[in-house]
Amino acid sequence: MRRRRFLTVTGSSLAAIAGCVGDETPDETQTETDTQTATETTEPTLTPDGTEQPADVVAAGELLVSDMHAGRFEAAVERFRSDAQSAISAGRLEEIWLGYTAVGGPFQRVADTEETVQSGFDAVDLSLEFDRGTHVLRVLADDQDAPAIVGIFVNDEYSRPEYVDPNAFRAEEATVETDDCLMDGEVTIPAEGDSVPGVVLVHGSDPNGAADMDLTTGGSKPFKDLADGLASRGVAVLRYDRRSHACPNSLAPEEWTLDNITVDDPLVAIEQLRAVPAVDSDRVAVAGHSLGGMAAPRIAERDGDLAGIAMLAAPARNFYEIFIQQFEHLATVGEYEWDAMAEHYERWDERIDRIREGDYSDSDIVLGYPGALWSSVDAYDQVATAKAIDTPTFVLQGDRDYQVSVTADFERWQTQLADRPDASFELYGGLNHVFQYGEGPSTQTEYTLANPVDRSVVEDIASWASSL
Q: Which CATH architecture has domain 166-467?
């Protein structure tokens, strides 16, 4: 099936991944016009060496997918316009395809195409059918006789997980308010029962300010999955836009400390959730993800009355160590090296020494973060803090997580908290850093595909919270 449409691009579910000339973020300048029906695609022509040349954007997209499916990533790069090729490499395209197949499984076919216009370019949304579902790839191309690709994007739309029962809870708007920031949020409250347990969700690190209350990335909304899934199982949840998203200019770089960005605001949210009439104020916990999980013991220490902390993919070692591991993985995840990521890895590897040696000021930006964060994290011993508190602790980790390590982090938590009778641990097979299922090596691209937090994680956190 092939359709054509012209529309205003909002960018809400459009995640840039490669090769867009000038800017990798889709703009919002399109003008909506009448819907039209396209003529059938013209058969592609052949060059003297036998390479297929597309007749239009649909053919360009289909040929690109064919190349990636066949592992012809160097040939796929040649389908991009010359000025767009500097933004991609064979390794980058391989990483993208690995992301689609990690989530979807083996590729089957292009099930549908839908044409549009974006940023002055012809575009097509290709619905790619895999064994475990369908995902959308948007391809942008110029309008020449043999169009060349200028960019590709994940264009999945979020869909509610099957384990969410919308009749089992109600959602109410909330605002987490501090002296210098108003953070929009939402409380999901079970429809039945009173004195229910409550959980505050705490974000991880976010240098780019993209952490909304849902933790939205393309078609993925892990915090919404957790909130709605837990509320469907009798647990109230408060989540909110992270400060860097709601008030990006509220802190100067030298104020960007662990407490200011990851501890102080959750403490306000905890008190707010305790005040919700349906919530048992003695049974409020936090569930922190990544840096938020790392900070959870400190949040418990400062609050003094938390019923529990859930630490999801929480680093147990120096925070900077996980950065270099991440970039090394991404640069070498497939058979082809991702050139831009390899260069990034080399630059950041050199800068790690600055952090190790404390060679920075609080206002310096090192590895994408202000020096104030690095110094405050370096001064914080999350393992010692977790051992010192008497707050029930639940440590969760996916075994496909390339950002936080099973051996260096999860197993260290197990060893260091082994004497704590109120500490429990769960390692999930096949789950990535945000606890979504996939197969094969985990990639950056898979985070942008529509893929819910795994049901088992939601059920385990609900059971744990209900037992507090």
A: 3-Layer(aba) Sandwich (3.40)
Q: What is the DSSP track for 390-436?
A: -S-EEEEEETT-SSS-IIIIIHHHHHHTTT-TTEEEEEETTB-TTSB
Residue type, 386: A
> What is the pTM (predicted TM-score) of this model?
0.89
Q: Are 265 and 227 in contact (CB under 8 A)?
A: no
The beta-strand segments (E) located in 241-391 are 279-289, 308-312, 365-366, 369-370
DSSP 333: S
Query: Is the Cβ–Cβ distance between 424 and 354 less than 8 Å?
Result: no
Tokens representing residue 20 in the block? 């867009």
Per-residue model confidence (pLDDT) at position 366: 80
Give the pair of three-digit tokens for residue 99. 């992301």
User: What tokens were used for 93?
Assistant: 């395209």
- Where are the chain's structural domains? 2-154, 166-467
Counted residue by residue, the chain has a size of 468
Q: Listing from the earlier edge strand, what are the strands of the sheet with 279-289?
A: 169-177, 182-190, 236-240, 196-202, 279-289, 308-312, 393-398, 423-428
What is the rounded average pLDDT of the residues 144-153? 89
pLDDT at 252 over 80: yes
**How far apart, in whole angstroms, are the C-alpha atoms of residue 128 and residue 436?**
19
- DSSP 3-state helix, strand, coil percentages of the chain (rounded to 5)? 35, 25, 40
pLDDT > 70 in the chain, percent = 86
CATH topology for the 2-154 domain: Nuclear Transport Factor 2; Chain: A, (3.10.450)
Report pLDDT for 344: 67
Contact between residue 315 and residue 322 where contact means Cβ atoms under 8 Å apart = yes
List pLDDT tens digits, range 85-105: 988 889 899 999 999 999 999
Cβ neighbors of 416 (< 8 A, separation 6 or more) are 316, 383, 386, 387
| Angle between helices 264-274 and 291-303 in degrees, nearest 10 | 60
Query: 462 with 432: CB under 8 angstroms?
Result: no
Q: Which long-range contacts (CB under 8 A, 24 or more apart) does 351-360 make?
A: 352/320, 352/323, 352/324, 355/320, 356/320
Beta partners for 13?
A: none
Dihedral sign from CA coordinates of 150, 73, 88, 211: positive
Task: For strands 52-53 and 107-118, give the pairing.
Answer: unpaired
**Distance separating alpha carbons of residues 35 and 404, to the nearest angstrom:** 47
